[in-house]
Amino acid sequence: MDRELARRFASFYFLLFLPIGIQAPYLFLFFKRQGFSDSQLGTLAAVTPLLNAFVPPLWGALADMRRDRRSMLAALLLGAALVFPWLAYAHSYVATLALMLAFSAFAFSPAAISDAIALENVEQRGGDYGRLRLWGSLGFAVPLLAFGLILRKDTAGSAASLYPIFWSYTVFRLISVAWVRMLPASRGKRRGLFDVRAVKAFTQWPFVVLALCSVLAMGAMSAYYLYFTIYLDEVGIADNLKGYFWAIAVASETGMMLVVGRLIRRIGLKWALALSIFGCSLRLFVFSFPLGPLEIAAVQLLHALTFTIFTVATITFVSRLTPPELRASGQSLWMALTGGLGAAAGTKLAGMAAGAVGLLGMFRLFAGGAAVALVAAVLFVREPETPNTAPSGQ
Known about the structure:
Strand content: under 5%
Distance between the termini: 15 Å
Number of strands: 0
Helix content: over 70%
CATH topology: Growth Hormone, Chain: A
CATH class: Mainly Alpha
Structural class: mainly alpha
Oligomer: single chain
Largest sheet: none
CATH superfamily: MFS general substrate transporter like domains
C-alpha cells in the first residue's frame, strides 16, 4: 500500500473513532445522573447490542450489493450524527429508550464496513491492518484528554454538565461523513439479501465455535463498558479525571497495535484469542475490588489484551473464513454476534447483577463467565489452515 493511501485510511480511522471517544465514556454516566435505575441502565445499554444482533448484517448485505460500499458507509455515519444530540433533551426513560434504538440502528455498523474496505485494500496492495487501525485508537483518545480540561473537577456534577458530549459528537461525525470520499471505491458482488454462499460460509464449524467463544467473552466484557465510568464515580474519581483512565487503556491499545501482527505470527490466532480472553477474565476479577487510582491505571493496561489482541485476532479469523465478495457481510455478521447478541445479554445481566449483588459482586460474576469462554477457546477453537488475507501484518 502506498503512503498516500495509507494516510487516507489512517486519517479516516482517526475520524471514525474520535466521536466514539466522546460518547462511550460519558453517555451512561449522563443517564445515571438523570436518575435512571441500574435495571434501566442495563436495558438502555442492551439496546445497542440487541439491535446490533440484527441490523449490521442487513447493512453489510446492502453494502455488498452496491456498486460502491462507501455510499452505505456515509449514510450510516450521517444517520448517527443526526440522531445522537437529541438524547440530551430526552428526559423521560421512554423517550431515551426510543432514541437509543434509533441511534443504535446507525452508529455501530460503520466500523465493520470500514474494516471490510481496509482489509480488501490490505489484501490487494499489502500493508498492516494493525498499523492503520491504531489511528482509530488515537482518535478515541483525543477527546478523553480534551474533556479533562472541560468537565468538572469533582464527582458532584449534574447531567447538564455533560452536555458538551452531544454536540461535539455530531460535529466530528459529520466531518467523518465528508472524509468517506477519500477512501478508495469498494464494490461488493453479493447477489441478493439471501445468498447461499453466505449461509455456507457462516455455518462452518470453525466459524460457529469461534463465534460462541467470542460471544461469551464479549458478553462478560460488556459489564466493564457499561459500568467502568460509574465504578470510577463510586471510588471517588473526579469527572475531569475519568477520561484519563480510559485514555490509559487506549494508550496500551495503541502500543499493542504496533506489534500485534508479529505476536500473532509467533503464537498463532488461536492462542492470541485465548490470551485476549484470559485478559478479560483477569481484568474483570481485579475490578471486583475497590482500587486506588494507581491500581486502576495499572489494570487499564490490560486493554491491550482485551481489546487490541481480541479485535485483530477475531477479524483476521473472520477474514480468513469469508469469501472476498462477502467481506462486508462477514464483518457485519461478526459484529452482530459479538457486539450484538453477546453484549445485549451481557449488559442486561450486568444491570440485574449490579442491582442484586452490588457493583463489585457483579464484576466477579462476569470474570467467571470470561473464564468459561477461555476454557472453551482452548479446547475447541482451531487455527485456520489457509489464510485468504493477512490484515494484521502476517
